[in-house]
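Pinned message: reference record for Carbon-nitrogen hydrolase family protein
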Amino acid sequence: MTNRLSLGLVQTAARHHAAGDPDAFAADVRGVIADHPDVRLLAYPELHLCGHRPGEDPRTVMTAAAEPLDGPRGARLSALARELRIWLVPGTVYELGDDGRIYNTAPVYSPTGERVAAYRKIFPWLPHETTAAGDTFVVFDLPGHGRVGLTVCYDAWFPETTRHLAWQGADLVLNLVRTPTVDRAQEVVLARANAIVNQVFMASLNAAAPDGVGRSLVVDPEGRVRGEAGPRSEEILTDVLDLAEARRVRERGTEGMARVWDPFEEGRPPLELPLYAGRVDPDRWRRGARP
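Predicted structure (tokens):
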């Protein structure tokens, strides 16, 4: 039997955290958990710990903030998750990779302090973002709940991203966002669309002003908005999700009708995909299969 997952999305601005103050961030996390003790998965927006302030040069801030995931910042985040016994997604950080390049990376820490996942943003917002692009779709398991996939901001505009995570078995896709622009309206639509066409829960977490324009939301696997935060303001959006509902929707169909994972069942011919110089092969299509 799947347990319900208590989720906390912290729609906030970086403020002093952007200056690299780990004690301030730890105090903020402790305060959130004190106010919401049932939350098991706590997430912050994109670049919450590393983002530039208004008037600062993003490249200078990026270079100064970049460090390996197993560096001092990672050690502090690991200890914080272990102390509070929560699944912690601290937003994204500037990661200095072994190849010397800087990535926009979302790490995930378990209640034991283990870093269980790290996703490098595949689609930086060109030409404005200068981080290196990742090349791997990342999911991780929440024992007793289900599987979670990770995306970062602009990734949500590319349907291939969420589709790959759903194919890898994600029941919930967590999209970490730092959008201060008017196209947040389109991102809200995309959160619903990605939920509908992939039959997954979507949690799109944006920053508050001045880093973002808010409107964080949680969408169910049939596209219904379960909760939405206000524009620009700082607030905590909480929800309790039965991730098994995503699996039930795929079995019975959206509104009892559309079963989007069924057309390429065994025995159907492959579908050529000229755009990708490849194909959809029924032997690989079944959701949850491994590449």
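Pinned by admin. Summary line: The chain has a mean pLDDT of 91.
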